[in-house]
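Thread: "does anyone have the structure for this chain?"

Original post by V.I.:
We have the sequence but no experimental structure in hand. Need at least a predicted one for the grant figures.
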Amino acid sequence: MTYEVYCKDAGAVSCGGHVKAETEEEFKQKVVEHLKAKHGVDTPNDTLMAYLMSARREEGKAGA
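Reply from O.Q.:
Generated one for you, tokens below.
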């Protein structure tokens, strides 16, 4: 399964960022890395992570 999110789709319209990963754990790690490098968020809180997880797209989902 592939997980991905574009920052513009999550509300950061001035960011051209795109995070994509093959596993949910890798996706979360890459999101945290992107938030730190591009948005100055050293430790995202649970609310932000939950929002970004809800904004992601999933491809290859069973039954889709």
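V.I.: this helps a lot. The beta strands are 2-6, 18-21, 57-59.
O.Q.: and The mean pLDDT is 93.
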